[in-house]
Write a structure and sequence with these properties.
The protein contains 6 helices and 5 strands. By secondary structure, the protein is of the alpha/beta class. A 5-stranded parallel β-sheet has the order 2-1-3-4-5, with helices on both faces.
Length: 157
């Protein structure tokens, strides 16, 4: 785990890119090597720099994050890719996985959880964000219950 993982950030918000970059600079396991606000640049940077990790927003200025991920993975299939989203959206999560992402990260995640999640991906011990796991469980139970009745589920905190 001593290897430094080079990271590509693809995020339309400069403020959010700076926040992520700051968080990553606190962890010696990660080094941000490039950042962009559009998908086409992210694809080009992924091809030329071959980073180990890419954090890609759901929507970039010129294309969807999932499209960006598909193209990036064609050029660099070993790269770990995490789709960053505003909310725990089950459909978006599955679309991210289908496009080749290995993870799904909520932008609102606490900094300590952010580090823990990225580190777990790198050491191949990743888990789902709790909020997303709850949404998946809720949708699964609803779809598989008789007459579409939604049973009461309680979120654990």
């Amino acid at each position: 785990m001593s290897q430094i993982n080079r990271v590509l950030l693809a995020e339309p918000s400069q403020e959010h890119r700076e926040r992520i970059k700051y968080l990553l600079e606190l962890d010696p396991l990660f080094e941000v090597v490039a950042e962009t606000d559009c998908g086409r640049d992210a694809i080009s940077l992924a091809d030329s720099l071959k980073p180990e990790v890419a954090l890609v927003a759901v929507e970039l200025h010129d294309m969807k994050g999932t499209q960006t991920i598909q193209e990036m993975k064609k050029m660099n299939p070993q790269m770990l890719v995490v789709l960053q989203a505003e909310s725990a959206d089950v459909e978006c999560f599955f679309e991210a996985l289908k496009s080749g992402a290995q993870g799904y990260l909520l932008k609102s995640l606490h900094p300590a959880s952010f580090h823990e999640y990225l580190r777990s991906l790198v050491i191949e011990d990743a888990t789902l964000p709790r909020e997303l796991g709850y949404q998946i469980l809720k949708q699964f139970v609803t779809e598989n219950s008789p007459h579409g009745v939604q049973p009461k589920l309680k979120s654990r905190t």
